[in-house]
Amino acid sequence: MNESPIDKVADLGRDIGEYIKQQRSNAKISLRQLSKLAGVSNPYLSQIERGLRKPSAEILQQIAKGLRISAEALYVQAGILDLPQGGPVVDAVRADTTLTERQKQVLLDVYESFRRENAATAAAGTATTEQPEPDNKE
């Protein structure tokens, strides 16, 4: 049996709600505490977690701030953003269930900064080695 587009949207709502509830549980924050931290009403947050409401990107950003995780993680989970391209290191970090979303994001930020630094160093090294040799004809 094929799912209709409406069913798929409903599934996304349940998925993001379950994900938020899981992150809240991992952070050991009550629904009421997250409601205050995120500036979202307690009943509305409860409806999101139960999959009855699909939050906007703005609400997801507020919830991410309250959970101290990246908004991107919630956007990906909600289907707003595609999963970023990875590689073996990125995939391993994202797959690690023992790390919080915030820890994963910090690790990935450090990893990417090292990659950018190495790429810049390599580009600078290539630029200096590509200089034409001076003529030593006398």
Topology:
Blueprint: H1 5-26, H2 31-38, H3 42-49, H4 57-67, H5 71-78, H6 88-95, H7 101-129
Q: From the 3D structure, determine the CATH topology of the largest domain.
A: 434 Repressor (Amino-terminal Domain)
Low-confidence stretches: 5-10
Number of helices: 7
CATH class category of the largest domain:
Mainly Alpha
Helix coverage percent of residues? 55-70%
Task: Compute the number of structural domains.
Answer: 2
Radius of gyration: 22 Å
Overall outline: elongated
Assign the CATH superfamily of the largest domain: lambda repressor-like DNA-binding domains
Mean pLDDT, as a whole number? 81
Largest sheet: none
CATH architecture of the largest domain: Orthogonal Bundle
User: What's the end-to-end separation, in Å?
Assistant: 84 Å
One letter per element, helices H and strands E, the order comes to HHHHHHH
Give the class from helix and strand content and strand pairing: mainly alpha
The proportion of strand residues reads under 5%
The number of distinct β-strands equals 0
Oligomer: single chain
Domain HTH cro/C1-type: 20-74
Keywords: DNA-binding
Protein name: Helix-turn-helix domain-containing protein
Biased composition (Low complexity): 119-129
